[in-house]
TrEMBL record:
One of its GO terms (biological process) is L-arginine deiminase pathway. It comes from the Bacteria. This is arginine deiminase. It is an enzyme of class 3 (hydrolase). SUPFAM superfamilies: Pentein. It comes from Lacibacter sediminis. Pfam families: ADI (PF02274). The lineage of its organism: Bacteria, Pseudomonadati, Bacteroidota, Chitinophagia, Chitinophagales. GO terms for molecular function: arginine deiminase activity. Coiled coil: none annotated. Its EC number is 3.5.3.6.
Length: 504
């Protein structure tokens, strides 16, 4: 069988290729008055954030492209102090430039070397951002692809490159582009494009569409799946449109098992979108998806996608935010909040009631021809039941071996505090080796209790530099420095869009 360039059918197989995006200058332009518009909750120190992110990049390189990690080490030994970080900056000659760890900025620069694509992308962005014709012309006259790619992302015409007195701001920043998980989802050898819920992220969707069309799937555009509203959508009244709108963000979509797909219905991924995804995925027999679980969560900022509530660590191990779990219903847990829980308006209880899990089984052809719908479904009692079912039924684990590690050890208030800083949002480099944030102490303790080693990136790098082969690392949580990174409200799962993973 031909080797796939891009293929993902689980969340755990050895990670071989992914898309990332290093924090860019746009993040440094957010002011408190625009927090809500930009989906940020704080002012982030950009320089420190980039340093933290570089740990992430280097760790990825050790696992995916070791030679490039060695290149970084060598480069930094000889580089002048102010140039030390240049090997991490896309567009610089010193950039590590890997074909396994791919930055969106580097890929954009690649596709716009084709003049036709460049002009198309400029006019698409300029019309979306309602720029003047003059700005469009300025962009058309820029021949440095790396510079232009950077401008598309940051929205800044840099003074030194443009020969002007000051930087000129031409588009708003897209400071959430570092969360590449959300921009699109590999479904085996297809890609499902996101349709971002908020204005702050729509340019990301546009850029991703171009990357899919002109880079990843330029020879097989039929593998790009796009789900949009019905053609008469705009004829409906506003209220009605709210029900029919299609929004999809990758943090809500998990290709968990070759036959089983999990979709979150959240503040970002609309119920119409979920509905359409179920139809689209079941109607493509080549995808081989037989079961789709829909996890409906409350529409909260704190848990904007399902991957802020749970992610998979091993076939039989998960990390989960306990407040949305079935356990919260257990008497001993509730007794901790005995006073408030007796009140019917207790917000925790309300939230719990909003968690709903429906599971759809692909109907046989005859069933479908008869009913034309996928309503043959069952309801699961809660998230733990779903995770256990996946471990046992899909992956063949023994029920007694399934382990759920809880955010903050499931102890209030650590559970909530650490969920906010993405304790449940880990990405697997391979089965059992996941990346977390160093500030989530109690969650790290819970991993230890579950039998995992816990290492900081610094410790991991020391080991790798002393000859330990990353290939031999097993059952380990590797912690990134995260004081600034976590303020953007996404963890390593959000910061990765896997393109190629091994089958399990
Ligand atoms: N997959 C995720 N959980 N992504 C997190 C995205 C965080 C980002 N600030 C936003 O609100 O959009």
């Amino acid at each position: 069988m031909a080797q796939h360039n891009y293929y993902v059918e689980n969340e755990l197989g050895r990670l071989r290729k992914l898309v990332i995006h290093s924090p860019d200058g746009g993040i440094g332009k957010i002011i408190p008055g625009t927090f809500a518009d930009n989906l940020y909750d704080d002012i982030v120190h950009l320089n420190k954030m980039q340093k933290e992110y570089n740990h992430y990049v280097k760790l990825l390189l050790y696992f995916l492209d070791k030679e490039k990690a060695h290149y970084i080490n060598q480069y930094q030994q000889t580089a002048d102090e102010e140039k030390k970080s240049w090997c991490y900056i896309p567009g610089k000659d010193e950039y590590f430039n890997s074909d396994k760890v791919l930055d969106t900025q580097q890929l954009l620069a690649e596709i716009i070397k084709d003049e036709k694509v460049k002009l198309r992308l400029i006019s698409a962005i300029c019309s979306y951002e309602e720029s003047s014709y003059a700005i469009q012309q300025v962009l058309e006259n820029i021949n440095d692809a790396a510079l232009l790619a950077k401008i598309f992302i940051t929205g800044i015409l840099p003074a030194e490159a443009m020969g002007t007195q000051e930087d000129q701001y031409i588009f708003p920043p897209i400071p959430n582009f570092i969360f590449t998980r959300d921009i699109g989802i590999m479904v085996k050898d297809h890609i499902l494009l996101s349709r971002m819920a908020t204005v702050a992220r729509r340019r990301e969707s546009l850029l991703t569409k171009f990357l899919s069309l002109y880079y990843f799937f330029k020879d097989e555009p039929q593998k790009i799946m796009e789900i949009i509203e019905e053609s008469d959508f705009f004829l409906y009244e506003e209220e009605e449109r709210k029900h029919r709108i299609i929004t999809i963000e990758g943090g809500d979509v998990m290709m968990i098992h070759p036959k089983h797909f999990v979709i979150g219905c959240s503040i970002r991924t609309s119920s119409s979108a979920v509905n359409e995804m179920v139809h689209t995925l079941f109607s493509k027999p080549e995808l081989g998806i037989e079961k789709i679980s829909v996890v409906k969560i409350p529409k909260n900022r704190a848990q904007m996608h399902i991957d802020t509530i749970f992610t998979q660590v091993k076939r039989n191990v998960w990390v989960l935010y306990g407040r949305f779990s079935e356990r919260i219903l257990r008497a001993e847990h509730i007794s901790r909040h005995s006073y408030v829980n007796k009140l019917s308006h207790n917000p925790r209880q309300l939230e719990m009631e909003q968690v709903e899990i429906l599971q759809f089984q692909k109907p046989t052809n005859e069933q479908y021809i008869k009913t034309k719908d996928y309503s043959i479904h069952k309801k699961l009692p809660g998230i733990e039941s779903l995770l256990r079912q996946i471990s046992v039924e899909d992956f063949g684990a023994k029920p007694e071996d399934v382990k759920i590690i809880y955010s903050g050890g499931n102890l209030f208030p650590h559970d909530e505090r650490e969920q906010w800083t993405d304790s449940c949002n880990v990405v697997a480099l391979k089965e059992g080796v996941v990346i977390g944030y160093d500030r989530n102490d109690k969650t790290a303790d819970a991993f230890k209790e579950a039998g995992f080693n816990v290492l900081t990136t610094k410790e991991a790098f020391e080991q790798f530099e002393n000859g330990v082969d990353p290939e031999t690392v097993e059952n380990t949580l590797i912690l990134l420095p995260s004081a600034e990174l976590s303020r953007a409200r996404g963890g390593s799962h959000c910061m990765s869009m896997p393109l190629l993973r091994d089958k399990l």
